[in-house]
Amino acid sequence: MSAYVILCRAFQKLARLGQSLWPWREPIFLRGPGSANGLPAFIKSLGLRRVLLVTDPGLMRLGLPRPLIQGLEKAGLHCAVYDKTAANPTPRNFEEARWVYRQAKSDCIVAFGGGSPMDCAKMVGFLVAYPYKKAHKVKGVQPLRLWRAPPLFAVPTTAGSGSEATLAAVVTNPAMNAKYTVISPRLRPNYAVLDPALTLGLPPRFTAQTGMDALTHAVEAYISRGHTKRTDARALEAVRLIFDNLETAHADGRNMPARDAMLYAAHCAGLAFTRAYVGYVHGIAHALGELYNIQHGLACAVALPHVLMAYGKAAHARLANLCDAAGLSTPGQSVADKAEAFIRTLRILNTSLGLPARFTCIREDDIPKIAARALKESNPLYPVPRIWRQAQCEDVVREIAKGGVTDDH
Length: 409
Ligand SMILES: NC(=O)c1ccc[n+]([C@@H]2O[C@H](COP(=O)([O-])OP(=O)(O)OC[C@H]3O[C@@H](n4cnc5c(N)ncnc54)[C@H](O)[C@@H]3O)[C@@H](O)[C@H]2O)c1
Ligand SMILES: [Fe+2]
Hints:
- The protein is an alpha/beta fold.
- 52% of the residues lie in helices and 11% in strands.
- It contains 15 helices and nine strands.
- The longest helix has 23 residues, at 229-251.
- Nicotinamide-adenine-dinucleotide binds next to α3, α6, β7, α7 and α11.
- Residues 56, 58-59, 62, 87-88, 113-116, 119, 157-158, 160-161, 163, 166, 168-170, 198-199, 201-202, 206, 210, 213, 296-297 line the site of nicotinamide-adenine-dinucleotide.
């Protein structure tokens, strides 16, 4: 084992120790078709009176937030709306929404949408609590201080990011051409409303991509060395539900049970990865998103089988368990056979969802840069099954470009 690997593992152990002191409060969640209709009365019952609703322009055009806004007003609550959240939210979004929050004298925040509006709302809560902080300066793990953020209610309309369950917000700063994460236990929403009726109109392409993002969260959390009994249970549940329901939700968007299962699966995957972390799939997917503007879930879907294959034996035992959880194992299979069967099924799943096996847009000249960015994000933070250096990561990115099979065991 090299000195670098020893240092990474030591860092991960220390981080785990430090985080065991964090307040791991989970959001209280309401689930089921129509559950969002009960939100206004619930907010009122908590003695709150003035809501800032954070959403995005696409959802406003579709009119999806309208019933909730009307419900809030009918319940006698004041509702200000910030609907300019970008597809990958920026510090400018956070500053603007904080301004609306202050102008409207709001006392709580409702995040309505996919990962983008939810992350935006989380950052607004943070910035309201720290009125003197500038949005573009908030990065990385935030020190644990006793600050009071306004109560945050998250209403996801995609089944993917799981942001309603996590301690993180992903920030894109176009001025610096950078995408980074802000992490704090206090960023986690207090309440999550999992209403599958809101996801019925999600187009098949987004259903596939966001669903594969959720599956990647569950898989990376499960094979992470940072896993706990609790994160394992969540990740296994998510994998089982996604294998049982993603293709149905993709083929028949109005199938309520499949949408309900997917929304809950994405939530479970969020609960798992926020504690156990993700891995190199996310490191590479973020780099591909930055360079080629590839949608996050799509980048994860394509990278996932390649990265798992490249982990080799280090991930076999855990992947074999996932193969069992997904109901893919056959009697007499060895651990290695099960791991390979699981990876093979991921490739088949991508094909059946109409997703590609590779990215031809990756230029050979860019590969060192992609690998460097992926490793900068991942090492030493993510407790991946095997720690890679630049050359190994470049090989995997090359396979993602070619669509070949990376197998180094
Ligand atoms: N904080 C976290 O823990 C975390 C985790 C993973 C991803 N993320 C971030 O989340 C973002 C991605 O989130 P996402 O994949 O949910 O997409 P998104 O929120 O960016 O939404 C994508 C598009 O789908 C549309 N949309 C959303 N719900 C819809 C619905 N029900 N019907 C029709 N259209 C709908 C939106 O208007 C938007 O145009 C990225 O910025 C990513 O970095 C955050
Ligand atoms: Fe993700």
